[in-house]
Write a structure and sequence with these properties.
Largest sheet: none
Number of helices: 16
Distance between the termini: 88 Å
Helix content: over 70%
Shape: globular
Length: 330
């Protein structure tokens, strides 16, 4: 009897001394992937409206960090790859925000990281997204041969073989690179490839929200850039008008940029008064919100060309007095 009581007491003591094994953390599955992707969509919508800025970039970096932390507990290898893909897209969003804000060094670091993550996620769409942003960053840096290289890298991604819309975007970026160095033949050939590919694309096919900006309207906006680079200002103006007639209202930043390209095309035809009136609409479209660095830079280009073409005109002085501080300080 005493022995049985001792064993019972000992068992109780041992149970009290050994802590319960902690419950295993739950396995991460599809619901977390969907949640994180919805966060990406929200950031994309914010970018379309306001453009790149520090808060958006930080939110995107945080989203990538969360996805990478969750992939450590993925329920399967497939979920793990999907979370790497999500992390790649959040990082690419951070990169694009930095590109638009003219923060080149940060943008480059994000792009390098995003390309690695896209490979880990086996995601050719994210890979193309990275090369697309590489091309735009190279434009801002004046590294035009790298614009062409990035455009060709985008063309080589697997997604361009199965979806002509992505192929069109890659060719359009390449066209900008060629036109920036005055290579008329290659620029127009790339632009033609972009138009042909887009004509074969289904606009109703499900795609990531980041590429929703691209379609016939955006290709017209890019056509305006290419044609203006090549000295075809009248063709560029017509393309800008077509772009503005079709760019959806929610893409406020893109509408403002297309308006600025229209102003540049008018200015390059020596219609200074109309060009200034058009450029004024950029501030109206942005509704008093801070202008992204890329837009401020293009406004600087407009003012530089305005003072070069009409240095002594009253309209140039008036535009400078009314808007220079606004674009410099917002």
């Amino acid at each position: 009897m005493r022995r049985r009581n001792f064993l019972t007491a000992a068992a109780g003591t041992t149970a009290a001394a050994v802590p319960l094994v902690a419950a295993r953390p739950y396995a991460v599955g599809t619901s977390e992937v969907i949640r994180l992707r919805s966060g990406l969509d929200a950031l994309t919508a914010l970018d379309a409206s306001k453009g790149g800025h520090g808060e958006l970039e930080r939110a995107a970096v945080a989203g990538a960090a969360e996805a990478l932390e969750l992939q450590k507990r993925a329920a399967s290898q497939r979920i793990r790859q999907r979370l790497f893909s999500v992390a790649a897209n959040y990082t690419a969003q951070a990169a694009w925000s930095a590109v638009d804000a003219r923060q080149s060094d940060r943008a480059q670091a994000h792009l390098n990281r995003a390309l690695y993550l896209a490979g880990m996620g086996n995601d050719p769409v994210a890979e193309l997204r990275v090369w697309n942003s590489h091309a735009m960053l190279a434009v801002h840096r004046g590294e035009y041969s790298q614009v062409v290289d990035a455009g060709r890298a985008a063309q080589a991604t697997a997604v361009t073989r199965r979806d002509p819309l992505f192929a069109s975007l890659a060719h359009a970026r390449t066209a900008i690179g060629h036109s920036s160095v005055g290579d008329r033949r290659c620029a127009l050939r790339s632009l033609g490839c972009a138009e042909e590919a887009l004509a074969n694309a289904s606009m109703d096919e499900p795609r990531p929200s980041w590429v929703a900006f691209y379609g016939p309207a955006e290709l017209m906006a890019i056509t305006s850039i290419v044609r203006d680079h090549l000295g075809d200002a009248t063709v560029a103006e017509a393309a800008s008008h077509r772009a503005l007639a079709a760019i959806p209202q929610q893409f406020r930043r893109n509408r403002a940029l297309a308006t600025l390209r229209l102003a540049l095309a008018q200015l390059h035809q020596r219609d200074e008064e109309q060009a200034c009136a058009t450029a004024e609409q950029v501030f109206v479209l942005m509704g008093g919100d801070p202008l992204p660095g890329r837009m401020r830079c293009y406004l600087g280009d407009f003012y530089r060309d305005l003072t070069t073409l009409a240095p002594d005109s009253g309209i140039a002085r008036e535009w400078k007095d009314r808007y220079r501080s606004e674009w410099s300080n917002t």
